[in-house]
């Protein structure tokens, strides 16, 4: 621990970020190394192009949407603090809470679900429409399924989740339909453990 704390010095606002996101200093250092690696022009900020270099994201069918989440406030670049805040959604849930941990940390069940919901709700109106659902399904399943199969999968998903029958999935409905799914497991990045 003693040797890593000296390296922490060049990380801007390291203490605040650890407090806010729950990352340990070891995590933060690793994220900083990654950030510096991606920041090819050494500007202290990343552009969407820099993310394309992350092979795993490029291969992920909804990788483009995940990259988009880093730029959701319309900004063109991401600094280290924003980078860490977004990745905090992928931190596994705490088994034992530390004193002074944030009330609603980014890795809480609800915040993880909200993050996932936004990947579907591309127009940001708070509802997943049939079209938006189809777009994600199409991206995820690619050419393995026919348009007809896709439609019927979407139809079934909407019928199961759409409790108030308005033909769209609200966040509450999304949350309820995923209650049995282990979102924490699905939305954790192994290197953050
Ligand atoms: Ca929408
Ligand atoms: Ca609904």
Automatic annotation (TrEMBL):
<dbReference type="InterPro" id="IPR018247">
    <property type="entry name" value="EF_Hand_1_Ca_BS"/>
</dbReference>
<dbReference type="InterPro" id="IPR051875">
    <property type="entry name" value="Calcineurin_B_homologous"/>
</dbReference>
<keyword id="KW-0106">Calcium</keyword>
<keyword id="KW-1003">Cell membrane</keyword>
<dbReference type="GO" id="GO:0005634">
    <property type="term" value="C:nucleus"/>
</dbReference>
<keyword id="KW-0479">Metal-binding</keyword>
<keyword id="KW-0677">Repeat</keyword>
<keyword id="KW-0449">Lipoprotein</keyword>
<keyword id="KW-0539">Nucleus</keyword>
<feature type="domain" description="EF-hand">
    <location>
        <begin position="149"/>
        <end position="184"/>
    </location>
</feature>
<dbReference type="InterPro" id="IPR002048">
    <property type="entry name" value="EF_hand_dom"/>
</dbReference>
<keyword id="KW-0472">Membrane</keyword>
<dbReference type="Pfam" id="PF13499">
    <property type="entry name" value="EF-hand_7"/>
</dbReference>
<protein>
    <submittedName>
        <fullName>Calcineurin-like EF-hand protein 2</fullName>
    </submittedName>
</protein>
<keyword id="KW-0963">Cytoplasm</keyword>
<keyword id="KW-0813">Transport</keyword>
<keyword id="KW-0597">Phosphoprotein</keyword>
<dbReference type="GO" id="GO:0005737">
    <property type="term" value="C:cytoplasm"/>
</dbReference>
<keyword id="KW-0653">Protein transport</keyword>
<keyword id="KW-0519">Myristate</keyword>
<dbReference type="GO" id="GO:0005509">
    <property type="term" value="F:calcium ion binding"/>
</dbReference>
<feature type="domain" description="EF-hand">
    <location>
        <begin position="108"/>
        <end position="143"/>
    </location>
</feature>
<comment type="similarity">
    <text>Belongs to the calcineurin regulatory subunit family. CHP subfamily.</text>
</comment>
<dbReference type="GO" id="GO:0015031">
    <property type="term" value="P:protein transport"/>
</dbReference>
<dbReference type="GO" id="GO:0005886">
    <property type="term" value="C:plasma membrane"/>
</dbReference>
<dbReference type="InterPro" id="IPR011992">
    <property type="entry name" value="EF-hand-dom_pair"/>
</dbReference>
């Amino acid at each position: 621990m003693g040797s890593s704390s000296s390296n922490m010095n060049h990380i801007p606002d390291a203490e605040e970020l650890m407090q806010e996101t729950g990352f340990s200093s070891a995590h933060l250092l690793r994220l900083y190394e990654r950030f510096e690696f991606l920041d090819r022009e050494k500007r202290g900020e990343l552009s969407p192009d820099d993310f394309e270099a992350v092979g795993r994201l490029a291969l992920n069918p909804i990788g483009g949407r995940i990259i988009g989440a880093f730029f959701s406030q319309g900004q063109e670049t991401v600094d280290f603090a924003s980078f860490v805040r977004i990745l905090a959604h992928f931190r596994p849930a705490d088994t034992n809470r530390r004193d002074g941990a944030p009330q609603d940390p980014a890795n809480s069940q609800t915040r993880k679900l909200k993050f996932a919901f936004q990947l579907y709700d591309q127009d940001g109106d708070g509802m997943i429409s049939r079209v938006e659902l189809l777009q994600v399904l199409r991206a995820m399943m690619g050419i393995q399924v026919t348009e007809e199969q896709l439609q019927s999968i979407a139809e079934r998903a909407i019928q199961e989740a759409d409790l108030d029958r308005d033909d769209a999935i609200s966040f509450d409905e999304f949350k309820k339909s995923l209650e049995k799914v282990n979102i924490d497991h699905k939305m954790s990045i192994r290197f953050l453990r």
